[in-house]
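Job type: complex structure
Entries:
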Amino acid sequence: MTVDVSRQAADPNLICQKVEESLVEYLSGNLEPADRDAISTHLLSCHACLFAAAEVAQWRASMRSATSPGPEVRERLWRAILAEVEPSVPQDADVRRLPSTSGPSPVNVPPPLAAAGAVPGLDLLGPVVLWVAGVSRLQAPQVALALPMGLSLDLPFFRHR
Amino acid sequence: MRVLEPRSSDQDPDLPLLEATAAGDVVAFRNLFERYVDPLFRFALSRLGDRSLAEDAVQETLAAVWRGARSFAGRSKVSTWLYGICRHTIAKIVSRHRVAQVELAGGALETGFPAAGVFIGCDDEAGQIDRKVDIEQALRELSPQHREVVVLAMVNGLPLEEVAELTEVPLGTVKSRLHWARIYLARKLSDDVGRSGLRGREEGRWK
Ligand SMILES: [Zn+2]
């Protein structure tokens, strides 16, 4: 897909439509940096798309929470899997020293995302990290003002500029 | 100006973990487990509609990964391979427990999505309960095909190309399913907060 989301493009509605179509990939960090940056720029100037992005991010957080296995199931799964594969696990493997499921994520996941559960691809983070009030502090007040109650939006891409 | 292309040049971060797992490294396997236990559980739950069966699916999948790590041929990303094993395992469980009819029926389905203990994103308790019910209801009402795409792409964050490969449908179909699922969710979930992106559009652009 080749779409121009720059300010020079003629039809704002078409730009917004393309941005909205890419929001899931954007929030997952699955876009090339140039595309990601173009959408980040658009979000700071378009109220509707910013709301849409906040909305998708909130659904994602809610669905993650609703479909999480939870710590007990995670631990039970790990024990069950170890028991199932035990004959092939090296005898000197001390599983008690393995990292705990409640500990920090073993692969670098940014803290807000780690809180939502380690997900493949998220360590290759996209620019917008959204999580909820009470968990985060606002980093971009002018953006946060535009968001519905209970939501905050962090734009590390802009912070680093 | 070329934009909106999926990124493709990144190294697969899971490959070193899988290679070490293949060599018998339990700590690497544990890291793989940590990275995939939640996404695979969500995927299995979305297909099986039962937490206990989803747990079985994840257990069988990751045990198979330990045993079969050496057979990974590198023709796909590790994540695609893992999800593929999980999908195969889910199919076995579906036939074992005769839940295939449920998946094929479509329409309003009992997915078994549990009540979230803490429903983040709301400030007041009444709001929490309403929104929790809303999101579970909305997920239940999606067709199995739309629900699968929502869970893989929107919740687990898989690239759409990977979702297409995994679900064995064209990329355009994945995009279309995601598009309609998003519109459905917006209509279903946004009434109570009055901030739908679609309605935001009608209110005009930010000056
Ligand atoms: Zn827009």
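Summary: Residues 5 and 26 of chain A are 13 Å apart (CA to CA). The first helix of chain A runs from residue 12 to 27.
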